[in-house]
Amino acid sequence: MTYQVLGDTIALRLQIGEEIITSITAVCEKEHITAGTISGLGAADHAVVGLYRVGEKKYFPTELDRDMEITSLIGNISQMNGKVYLHIHATFADDTGRVFGGHLNEATISATAEIFLRRLDGTIGRRHDASIGLNLMDV
User: If DSSP codes are grouped into helix, strand and coil, which group holds residue 38?
Assistant: First the structure.
């Protein structure tokens, strides 16, 4: 992982074998980012994306193990209980053009990923909402 700070934005490049959530969390901790946005693209060979079913208050994961392009990576950075909290969605395309996506739980880079983190002034918190079972932005 390498990155460069450019004003309020961090340009982050991940390498083969690095995991997206772990890497972004590490940069946020090191750079003390408590609120921000995430966007990126790249290539992965493993990912787990989820679909949340409100009625069951549960995520249902889909595991993807194949060569894929990361066609979109988008999300936000906040804090919950004093720790970095990432909320990221992603889409992945395979060699036939089929696209899979959802809430990103994990993804391993197969070639590279180019991710931009934009720092926002201040802190955005999270709180658990038992009625829907999710951690909501506290704004």
Answer: strand
